[in-house]
Amino acid sequence: MRGLKTVGALVPLEPLIVLPEIRDRHAWLQDKLWWNDAKAPLMNISFEGFMYPPAYVNTTLVKPSDFKSYWDLADPKWKGKVCATDVRSPGPGGVPARFIYKHPALGQPWFERFFGTLDVALGREQRQLIDWVSEGRYAMAVFVDTDEAHGAILQGLPIAPIQVTQLKEGGPVAPGGGTLSVMNPLPHPNAAKLYVNWLLSREGQIAWQEETQTPSLRIDIPKKGVYLAPELKPGFVYTNGGAEEYSLLTGAIFNDMISAILIKAGRAV
User: Please, which residues have CB within 8 angstroms of residue 225's CB and are 6 or more apart in sequence?
Assistant: First the structure.
């Protein structure tokens, strides 16, 4: 979105989609095609969708169901009891961090309370962060890698996610690796058109899910064998975490903001 599109390396994708079953918005989560472009021409679409939990907790210390808002993650009672990925660098936690930053009821004040008052233990080694929570050294890990956390859950360790759908502010649907664009120039235009329509079709998305074990944004196919799939919860607001407005929130923005918060709190950066 920030690189290839701006230099003319992509072709408009929308005209290549011709199958009626793809254009049928009722086949997709929240009755829409998940275009990531802020405006036409439309060149990038998400077909995969993850509901990344903002945090995981040690279930012997905390009840996941007690959290009703992102502000509950920044409650003063968690001072000294939280570890988190250092989201000043690109990597795990970027999608929920960008969602919080953009949300009008959260924004920078949330980061000031979370990073400025809770003495959060910051790290980038995901296995270590998950181990800390699993062992009970910390009650909660925020912005951590979901694959690492899911692996720990499968091992029977006492951790569980704070589900996005229980938080009143809503949450982002992240595309993971499931987005589609077509390069310019097209060496084989008809082959590209054929592939685009197969991949986004019901048949193509079933094949994608079975091979990758990642959730499609199509809601007319079963979700067996996948995890972190968006739940069909009436009234819940799903935000497109792959949208252009989120991709423009670079690491530099978080680096400057969080570093300033840590300095003000008297912590080394």
Answer: 209, 210, 213
Please list the residue range(s) of the chain that carry CATH number 3.40.190.10.
55-171+250-264
The half-sphere exposure of 183 on its side-chain side, counting CA atoms within 13 A, is: 5
Structural element, H or E, at residue 101:
helix 94-102
Burial zone of 121 (CB within 10 Å; 0-12 exposed, 13-18 middle, 19+ buried): middle
Pairing mode of beta strands 55-58, 159-161 = antiparallel
* CB-based contact 34:28 (threshold 8 Å): yes
Q: Which superfamily does CATH assign the domain made up of 55-171+250-264 to?
A: Periplasmic binding protein-like II (3.40.190.10)
Backbone angle region of 266, left / alpha / beta, with phi > 0 → left and psi within -120 to 50 → alpha: left
Interatomic CA distance for residues 146 and 1, integer angstroms: 24
CA–CA distance, 143 with 141 (Å, rounded to integer)? 7
Positive or negative: CA dihedral 209, 24, 41, 9:
positive
Residues 124-176 have pLDDT tens digits of: 999 999 999 999 999 999 999 988 998 999 999 999 999 998 999 988 888 88
DSSP letter at 104 equals T
Rounded CA-CA distance 237/250 in Å is 24
